[in-house]
Amino acid sequence: MLRQARKEEDKLNKNLLKAIESQDVPFVKWLLEQKADPGRPSSSWAWGLALHRRALQDAMVTPLHLAAEHCDAAAVQQLLRCGAPTEARAEGGTALKAVAVPRVLGAGGRPCAAVAEELLQHGANVSARDIFGRTALEVALQESNTAVAEVLKKYGAVE
After folding, report:
1. What are the ranges of the ANK repeats (predicted)?
2. Which CATH number fits domain 2-154: 1.25.40.20, 2.40.50.140, 3.40.50.1970, 3.10.20.340?
3. Of 88, 98, 110, 122, which residue has the fewest beta carbons closer than 10 angstroms?
């Protein structure tokens, strides 16, 4: 019984990542209503290990990180409403750092700036550093993501 429940949970979480990747916000919302875990890292086989090994956890992607990378404001809002942790670390940094180096940069960075603002409004730490010691502001400036850099400065980030 427990094994079957775990399989169903894994399926929900894998589908959540796929829905975010394809920017299917209605499906993201439905999956969250079905109790997909908005804070669970992508690598289900390593979930238990990730709780004990920081390096392994840093290598995985959470749904919030993926939505932030894609500058998908609607998906980020849904995930945050369902309790996605803003300070979860994946791929070496927080979701705020992920939005500073997006996979898909919207027109002039504007959608990414909206995602950064949403994360900050939900308590993301503007001073958090990645595994290389860089803040989201440093990364945004390095990537010429000026719209996100301005939002970070508005919330107290300093160069």
Report:
1. 59-91
2. 1.25.40.20
3. 110
Q: What is the rounded distance in angstroms from the CA atom of residue 130 to the CA atom of residue 59?
A: 12
The three-state secondary structure class of 147 is helix
Q: Which residue carries 């959540």 as its tokens?
A: 16
Q: What is the token pair recorded at 86?
A: 């803003």
Domain ranges of the chain: 2-154
Provide the residue type at 142 as one letter: Q
72 is written with which tokens? Answer: 């998908």
Tens of pLDDT, residue by residue over 96-115, are 998 988 655 554 455 789 99
pTM: 0.78
Taking the C-alpha atoms of residue 5 and residue 103, their distance in angstroms, rounded to an integer, is 33
